[in-house]
Amino acid sequence: MGSSAAYFLKKKAGKSLDVVVIEKDCTYRKASTALSSGCIRQQFTIPQNIMMSRFTVEFLRLFKKDIDPDIDPNLTCNGVLTLTNEEGAENMKKCAGLQKELGVNVELLTADALKSKFPWIRTDAVALAAFGCVNEGWFDPWALMMGLRRKAQSLGARYVEGEVTDFIFKSTGGEYDAIDEVVFRTADSKQHGIKFNQCILAAGAYSGDIARKAAIGTKSGLLSAPLSIEPRKRYVYVIKSQGDNIPPLTAPLVIDTSKAYFRRDGTAGNFICGRSPPKDNEPSTDNLDVDMDFFETNIWPQLAYRIPAFESLKVVGSWAGFYEFNKFDCNGVLGKHPAYDNFYIMAGYSGHGIQKIPAVGRGIAELIVDGGFKTIDLSLLGFDRVVENKPLVELALV
Ligand SMILES: Cc1cc2nc3c(=O)[nH]c(=O)nc-3n(C[C@H](O)[C@H](O)[C@H](O)COP(=O)(O)OP(=O)(O)OC[C@H]3O[C@@H](n4cnc5c(N)ncnc54)[C@H](O)[C@@H]3O)c2cc1C
Gene3D superfamilies in the record, alphabetically (predicted)? Predict the structure, then answer.
């Protein structure tokens, strides 16, 4: 998100704007982006969520031309297929109706239609399926991030490796002090400060912590509402199967009735898969260790039931990453904080953020350089909804 903002700001404002990205780990080893599954879909119900994903597809198609000829984001539009049982069927129909009105190419399939289109799926207990077959699938998140970073740098954005630890305020004489300077620590334990004209908070899963340093959620009035973004650990397993009737190279990303998902990963027969843990049993976020028992008990049985070829799978790799989970409403926050003239937030997409990165980068650049949204009106993502306690409900979250 930070590199997307840096790129679009430099693209828009050129040399007239000095852009500095402060990044605590330039290897991005633990960044959500580097650890993402890279799924992109249009099957949302908030028009802005659809428009943002749509822009990302356009952006990725032009990536080699506009961003970096040496980096291929590997956009694979095999579609996204979501299965539901009786309980979820009404909601699926409602979402598909809304999506069609918004121009999304989504097809509803009965169990029989599903079986004839995708014969490798066992359709037991599937009441309905939604197949998004245009501009849906997955891409390589690492390529997106590296391309944006390199392009931003080539346009003059500077990257500093350091951990943001604090902000320095100055009195305005009004109700709220202004934020004047960001404080960060480099690897040699030295403290540094940068005074800024505008600051964007885009620290992924740690954005809630950093917002508190900016007094957000710690005072009264407009500063009383917290930015409730926190890390939530999610596992990704790489699997391979020797079974018969394996989902082919053209198979879509599948989200099972159990919410376990899988998709092809490259052409060597690997798949990646995962599933969110139960709400009351979130794993510890002290580390990025992978729980293999979670796969054995919560994913494999579901996948093997749904895809008979996965009964004989083996796990060939795994990793864990942190969702930047917005406890308030699972949607992103984008825009200026209402208590400040110079402090913007760009975080909290809670597991559907990778597909928003180009659009939110462009949006924040429009806010800062043009003074308002010019392409997609993203005002409804502003922090005002948090202050007013009006959650933004996206019906089509996985
Ligand atoms: C396992 C997994 C699967 C996912 N799958 C999907 C998917 O299929 N589709 C989808 O749309 N989204 C998915 N997501 C979500 C998506 O990856 C995120 O929404 C997106 O990457 C968030 O980008 P970001 O830039 O906000 O966060 P990050 O990529 O985490 O970047 C934040 C950066 O801030 C830096 N930082 C943090 N604190 C500080 C500090 N104090 N000082 C300086 N720098 C700091 C970090 O080092 C990091 O590089 C997934 C996420 C995970 C973990």
Answer: D-Amino Acid Oxidase, subunit A, domain 2, FAD/NAD(P)-binding domain
